[in-house]
Fold each of these.
Amino acid sequence: MRHGFVKVASASPSLKVGNPDFNKERIILLMKEAEEKKVKVLVFPELSITGYTSGDLFFQNALLQSSEKALLDIVEASESLDLLAFVGYPLKYNGKLYNTLAAIHHGSVLAFFAKRNLPTYGEFYEERWFTPSVRENLLIDFNGEDVVFGSKIILTSTIPSSLKISAEICEDLWVPDPPSTHHAIAGATLIVNASASDELIGKSEYRRDLVSGQSARINGAYIYSDASEGESTTDMVFTGSNVIAENGTVLKAVDYSLDELIISEIDTDRLERERYVRNTFPISEEGYSYISFSFREEETLLTRAIDPHPFVPENAEKRNERCNKILTLQAMGLKKRLQHTHAKKVVVGLSGGLDSTLALLVAVKAFDMLSLDRKGIIAITMPCFGTTKRTRSNAELLALSLEVDFRTVDISESVKSHFRDIGQSLEDYSVTYENGQARERTQVLMDVANKEGALVIGTGDLSELALGWATYNGDHMSMYGVNGGVPKTLVRYLVRFMAETTDNEEESKVLFDILATPVSPELLPAKNGEISQVTEDLVGPYELHDFFLYHVVRLSFSPGKVYRLALHAFDKVYDEDTIYKWLRTFIRRFFNQQFKRSCLPDGPKIGTITLSPRSDWRMPSDADSQIWLDDLDKEYKLHRK
């Protein structure tokens, strides 16, 4: 259960209405199967011992007495299992009958969670048999032990300490103010729901949305277990529609489940972190009982899907929808800046690479929004020692297809003169050799902007900012950075989206060729006319760095946890040594290059991450990375054993 991962499951066992003996056997079998599969939290449906549709049989002592014996047998069977199971049970107390969920762990009932909201409408008649939960928790005697009974109960795990569980029952989720909201405010990170929700046309999708939506609202995990087809079909049909969700994401969902464990892992550490980051998430423990329990400490094998490209939707339709939205947001940000400054012109350094291409496309979109002449967009290509014919040609062809003002300023002689001034040899391909060219290009852009009364549009993207892959006071600087909130893996899709959707054939053709060109700053001399300096050979694959960026910055995961997730997400793509190498590079560069991010130009926030010091990210430029590197090394050694 390292890193807060807990394996959980939902199950809809075979059922005979009114036959607790049969039902308990199915429950026990599934509990034992869950134990074998290392499940720690298992949720059964509402009134799973008797069957939800028992009707007036709930008035029969024979059924209630048989139910109690069945529960005691389940409790006894749980003694050797390292499992917390939730079983639906009709509890008789003080002359009333309650629809409850028994929390069973290591041979004991930890608590009875009572249903608050009893539906008595349509096909439901629960108030005929049951009483709503008591207002305040009580201690009741069950099998000679004091057990907490009520609805304001939270079970707190010792390992992991971020696992805190509460429950609601079926209708409780459907009301305007679900108990789970209050459970979360009292600290619960996992909500379990034992349900008997009959199936209707369209109800499965609605129910799934309800579960995922509530998990998002409470920044929590949610396990929903539905009654199976064994329930009576006198007036209704049940299909065992089970859902496991986490913070708005459905991890696992099935319909027509029977005698099947629906398993996934929830990340309770992430949920706890999401809450303390949100200062608007309230805390109130009033009226709640907290019951401690523990599991044996063991490794949780991950089976849940880990998206290797968290910034890029896998679904093509959603991806295109997002690309269109991002381009619009970028353009709207630039549009506002142009309106505010009364600027009618912008300057873009156009290299023929992806980032500058995207910046130019955004500028065109913003100018079109303002009905400004595209000739006010000055695209400047500045060839020097490493510029290849391919990128130079693509820059010109793109500018011509977009009908912007295209200019070429060869900076070779200026750079040579500067190198003579500072004593830099043209044979010394050091960082000065590279950065001198980048700064000369920025000087050209800034001075042309002054001359034309224009704004310099920055081209650097979010991934480059994270790695510090920019020349300080060179391409690092601009008057408005339209790409600063866009990660590199998404830049490619944005350009592809424009290539696929434009009506301009020439534009589409050159965009596809740009997409096929290796990412490079082209600051070292070309070899045989080909690019000699490929960025990903130097800093590592951007798909890895964007994965690291999302999990380190957006989710605040430790490097060890990020390494573990990356191994799972990139299985058979990168080996463990490769992932370790580039994650170490990411951490080292992320810390060492913060000073560049501390003085970023303005630019729009596009997604859930920005590294602007004025927005989401405030970090000292001289922070020490050692404990982060140590955490990664520890996890790496663990996997090498």
Amino acid sequence: MDIATILSAILTLTAGIGIFLVACQMMSTNLESVSSNKLKSLFSNAAKSKLLGVGIGAVGTAAIQSSGATTVMAIGFVNAGIISLVQAATIIYGANIGTTITAQIVALGMFGAGSALTTAIIFSAFAGIGAFITLFAKKEFWKRIGGILTGFGMLFVGLDLMSQSMSDFAALDSVKLFLARINNPVLLVLIGALLTAIIQSSSVMTSIALAMVVTRLINIDQGIFLTMGSNIGSCVVALIAGLTSGQNAKRTALIHLFFNISGVVIFLIVEFILWLVSGQNFSYGTMFTRMFPGAPQTQLAMFHTFFNIATVLIILPLTQQLVNMVCRLVPDNTNESDPDAPHLYYLDDNMLTTPPMAIQQTKREILNMADLAMQNFNLSLDIICTLDFKDSKKFQVREEELNFLNQAIIDFVVKLSEKPQLSQNDHLYLSTTFRSVRDLERIGDYAENIVEYADSLRFLNHKFSKEAIQEIRQVQSRISDLYDKIIVAYTDESIEALEEANVIEDEIDDITKAMEDNHIHRLEAGICGADVGAQYLSLSSNAERVADHLINVGKTIRKITN
């Protein structure tokens, strides 16, 4: 046995895997950035039907070249309560189909072996083309395109190194004899699962299997079982994400595991039955060899696609039963946490694996915070006008939520800002969120001040005059109108809606000024006392500042749209 040859092959394989993984990451990062808006639109429709969920999972995974990222994102959505377990399951099914695109691309790059100009060499040249584009491009979009092409080319550079290492191994009779003895399907599935769990990339494991089959280091049947095992091993990323999240996230990770195990078990049982019926003449390898003669890479890639599509078709009608099973395995735990405790509604750390989607969810979380702030502001005005404190507990719960969201959103944005997949516009948006969140938290504080004014009036056994209450309701109505315009401006990045909001804000300034003037007249006429007057003037000032903070939130879109 030539130790130097074995060491060289191992080092070459290691280099090939490293380049392949970096290439996958580079493609994924830049594809996510370029397609971020389409991804946001795509995943927003995930709840419409099971088949649509499968399609979204497949297209999304094909777009970002990472079934792990899609699955972890689905876990994040479930944990945040955005989608149901059934919807998450269908997205995961689709992700398994979408990940087969990588194997098809790799198989395509293996044609022409032995000739001077192979498809792998042609595709590898894209690494240089992409590098030149990245180096000389000035616009962010074209830099991302260059990154995609560079990653695509490097994919085949890594693949070529892996193929070289397999050729070196194939030249060693001792290695070939050792591998030839490993023909137990279950053992091969376990090896494929274990290696994939270590590498944490089913695409790399499938590519290695393709290279081993093409170099005749293993036969097509061994490659098939290794590939089936890689599907199970790919669940490790999702399991890690699920174990560190809530109960529904754990259930989603189990759905992914059981789905992939079920597919492997079904295919193993079917092959065994057909093997017995045919007189031990049947195997998936022989079937796909007859379908695609002379192209072992295509045989394995096509089986990989067939396996995942067939598994989805079998399991899809049983999705509800699968969900029920994992819910029994991971029952609700009332002691885990207080369901009424402050929490993020739309964000989860698992979403950080897909930053473009996390951007969309950050905006939804801020809009939710704005809604909570305005609910408390309106309730505070109702309390001070009626001196009815029956909803004061609801008010306090929302105030605690606002304080929690103020810090939790900022913490999430800080982590999200460090991700490389973000576009320039995404970074601009994230830079505005710090002020927006602070402005919304301040609205909650002003609402809390107004409730304190109401409590003082109750303690003094005083109340506002009818004229004062009418003025409060007037400014409340206009602030509600202002809020509606700001939400449109913020959601749609509408400068037109922002201009309309500015007009309303000017009216509110006039109204609050009139409130102060009118109150002075009432003091002079003896209609209001000095104690009531102090609370009323403070309320008027607080209302004007609430309008200012809302305008501040709207103004952040100017930084994004300019």
